[in-house]
Each structure stands twice: as C-alpha cells, then as structure tokens.
Amino acid sequence: FGDRHRQAIALATRQAAQALGRTDIGSLAPGLRADIIVVDTNAPHLVPRYPRADAVYSLLAYSA
C-alpha cells in the first residue's frame, strides 16, 4: 500500500481540478460542488480486501 495509491486518487480528484484551473471542485468541502460515489466493497471484483486503514486507496486505484 502506501503513497503511490494515495497519489493516484489525488491525481484523479484534487490535482485534476487544479490542472483544469477549477476552484469549485476537487474535494468535499463546504461551498464546493460535489459528486460522490458509493462503492460496494462486497462486490466480487473488489476482493481481496486488506485490513490496513490505507488499503482503501489501493482498492480504489486498482479494483474499482
């Protein structure tokens, strides 16, 4: 796990908004426009799941 997975998620969210020059999107914060997704972690393609707290970044970057 680690920083590279966290960086992949940041590249797809905050840093993508910055690259587009958008200040109204990129994170969930008061006053910003928000899109949110719900990921069913019981789906077969999201196995295996690891118990480490930062494993969610790996799960999202590689499986979801």
Compact summary:
This protein is mainly alpha-helical and 64 residues long.
Describe this structure as you would to a colleague.
With 64 residues, the protein is mainly α. 38% of the residues lie in helices and 0% in strands. α1 (3-12) crosses α3. The model has no long low-confidence stretch (mean pLDDT 82).
Q: What's the helix and strand layout?
A:
Elements: H1 3-12, H2 14-19, H3 55-62
Helix pairs in contact: 1-3
Using brief descriptors, characterize the structure shown.
single chain, 64 residues, mainly alpha, 3 helices, elongated
Which geometry do the CA atoms define? elongated
Put simply, the count of helices is 3
Give the CA-CA distance, first to last residue. 15 Å
Order of helices and strands: HHH
Radius of gyration: 13 Å
Helix content: 25-40%
Count of strand segments: 0
The low-pLDDT segments are: none
Q: What is the average of the pLDDT values?
A: 82
